[in-house]
Design brief:
Elements lengths: L3 E4 L9 H16 L3 E4 L13 H12 L5 E2 L15 H13 L3 E4 L3 H13 L22 H10 L4 E4 L6 E6 L3 E6 L7 E4 L4 E2 L1 H11 L4 E5 L6 H11 L7 E5 L2 E2 L9 H7 L8 E2 L6 E2 L9 H9 L14 H7 L10 E2 L2 H14 L2 H16 L3 H5 L4 H11 L6 H7 L1 H4 L7 H7 L2 H19 L1 H4 L8 H20 L3 H13 L7 H8 L1 H12 L4
Parallel strand pairs: 1-2, 2-3, 10-11, 12-15
Antiparallel strand pairs: 4-5, 5-8, 6-7, 8-9, 13-14
The chain binds glutamic acid.
Glutamic acid binds next to helix 6.
């Protein structure tokens, strides 16, 4: 199948994750069918233009790996891909519709329209510019031809409006929603072009560009569904109905509680980002959180978004981008809105974090580790290097969702506990456990001065490479041989080392911090009455 899709954002602010999902579905659809994914910037609404928004969109796509085949930066056979740079193209199309009597000039001032809106409101109605009023207002359908001509020659400001056909049923098809029908009497005469800035509106520019750029499938958010009848009518008016693209309107992303569209405010309220990258609003100075800066991996964000509204039809949940492209199909996109689940977002991140090699995670946390623990005694005897950082990543990566949490966990390696959890004391600080732990630590001290030392135990080389396991095997055998209650003793041991009876396996911790440090921490607890 020849397939050309476009992501056509307006640079009116940062890209919401719902918009990012639209971009993703377009990308996946293109990849699946060996087609092209096009990035077109729809910046014809100069009033809503926000500086920096386009750069934000481009960077967000890059971060997620959604590389356009054609676009503002990439160029392509239909360049330019920024609508403001295509300004000269659109007017002729508006003129063509005027010539065909399918559009008309309207000279109404903003004040007139405001007045009409207010009047309608006071009657409890919404004002619609349509067949009922187009012949009463300042339009080329109502005014004498000479006057229209004179006004145009004088350079009076006007808009061109689409002349919606009366009482016709528009029959439409949507790849997700099936067959749809709308009576044209429910539509108003949308503005297609404004003389004030010489720019087309979204509707005209969008249809003209989709046609000129030979777009085959329009995949976009549900909020554009009400525009579909007009778009069908425009294709027909231009005589392009045979090459009209297929449409797919994606379901909304809903709030975590289910009702209503996921908004920026939900993110602020529940503490999760709704934007892929951090956004500094140029007007208000407000800062909105981004997934990237919160420690999310792009693969996790992409994977999570893919499954919000689409399902593979199997139990599989983890899909790297290339596998998504393989599995994706519009038939499996649901009609119903998809509820955003911040917990699930964290879960995906945890999965992708675990898949990362320790070295790579180590690189991500090295600076933070040095900043937080570089001045501790332990770090003074043993500098925090790249290999220390990857070792630390290996120790804790199964327990965290974000790289920064690894740095938090590392506190137990560098800082002696100054208190013990109450629960830990209550459950495990018993005379018989203390006695057993004293025996255990004496055994370990003795061994580490002898046989374990040869294997490189203690702070230094090769400690996690198997040394932990020699230490572990010998110590566990000792505990078993003595008949000590394993769980009790190990929990008290952990409490002594970290301040918490629950947590990671103690032997890699001992191997990391060194026998002397481990013994000192253990003896500190054993010499104290808690
Ligand atoms: N410029 C529109 C937007 O901001 C594009 C809608 C469409 O894809 O047709 O979302």
């Amino acid at each position: 199948m020849n397939c050309r899709v476009r992501f056509a954002p307006s640079p009116t602010g940062p890209l919401h994750i719902g918009g990012l999902r639209t971009a993703l579905y377009n990308y996946l659809f293109a990849k699946k069918h060996g087609g092209q994914f096009i990035l077109r910037i729809e910046d014809t609404d100069s009033q809503r233009f926000v500086p920096g928004a386009e750069a934000y969109i481009t960077e967000a796509l890059r971060w997620c790996g959604l590389q356009p085949d054609e676009g503002v930066a990439e160029g392509g056979p239909h360049a330019p891909y920024r609508q403001s740079e295509r300004k000269a193209i659109y007017k002729q199309y508006a003129d063509e519709l005027i010539a065909k009597d399918m559009a008309y000039y309207a000279f109404d001032t903003a004040e007139t329209l405001e007045k009409l809106r207010k009047e309608a409101e006071s009657r409890g109605e919404a004002f619609a510019y349509n067949a009922a009023c187009r012949k009463q207002l300042q339009t080329s359908l109502a005014l004498p031809a000479e006057e229209v001509k004179a006004r145009l020659e004088r350079g009076e400001a006007y808009v061109i409006r689409f002349r919606t056909p009366e009482n016709r049923t528009v029959e439409m098809d949507d790849l997700i929603r099936g067959h749809l029908q709308v009576n044209t009497d429910t539509l108003d005469d949308k503005v297609l072009y404004k003389s004030a800035d010489g720019l087309p509106t979204y509707h005209l520019a969008n249809i003209v560009d989709d046609h000129l750029m030979q777009i085959t499938h329009v995949i976009r958010g549900e909020e554009w569904l009400p525009s579909l009848p007009l778009h069908y009518l425009l294709y027909e008016a231009f005589g392009w109905q045979d090459s009209r693209p297929a449409f797919a309107h994606l379901p909304l992303l809903l709030k975590p509680q289910g009702q209503g569209k996921l908004s920026k405010r939900d993110g602020d309220k529940f503490g999760f980002p709704v934007f892929p990258l951090v956004w500094h609003d140029p007007k208000s100075g407000e800062i909105s959180k981004g997934y990237r800066e919160e420690g999310y991996f792009p693969e996790a964000v992409v994977n999570m978004l893919a499954l919000l509204g689409w399902n593979p039809g199997t139990e599989q949940e983890l899909f790297p981008l290339d596998e998504l492209a393989e599995a994706f199909s519009l038939e499996k996109v649901s009609k119903a809105g998809a509820r955003f689940n911040p917990e699930k977002a964290r879960w995906f991140n945890a999965q992708y974090l675990r898949m990362r090699p320790d070295e790579e995670l180590g690189k991500l946390i090295l600076k933070d580790l040095q900043a937080r623990y570089g001045q501790t005694d332990a770090a003074k005897t043993q500098a925090i290097t790249g290999s220390t950082a990857s070792e630390i990543a290996g120790l804790f990566k199964e327990r965290v969702c974000f790289p920064a949490e690894i740095t938090d966990w590392a506190a137990m390696l560098y800082v002696r506990p100054d208190k013990y959890t109450e629960n830990g004391i209550k459950k495990f600080d018993k005379p018989e456990n203390r006695e057993a732990l004293r025996q255990v630590i004496d055994f370990m001290k003795q061994k580490s001065a002898g046989p374990w030392a040869g294997a490189g135990a203690g702070m230094g080389v090769g400690r996690s490479a198997g040394v932990g396991s020699i230490m572990e095997n010998d110590t566990l055998a000792f505990i078993r041989g003595k008949g000590y209650p394993m769980g009790q003793v190990m929990s008290l041991f952990r409490l002594a080392l970290t301040g918490d009876a629950q947590g990671p396996n103690v032997f890699p911790l001992v191997a990391f911090m060194g026998m002397d440090e481990a013994a000192a921490r253990t003896e500190a607890l054993l010499n104290k009455t808690l």
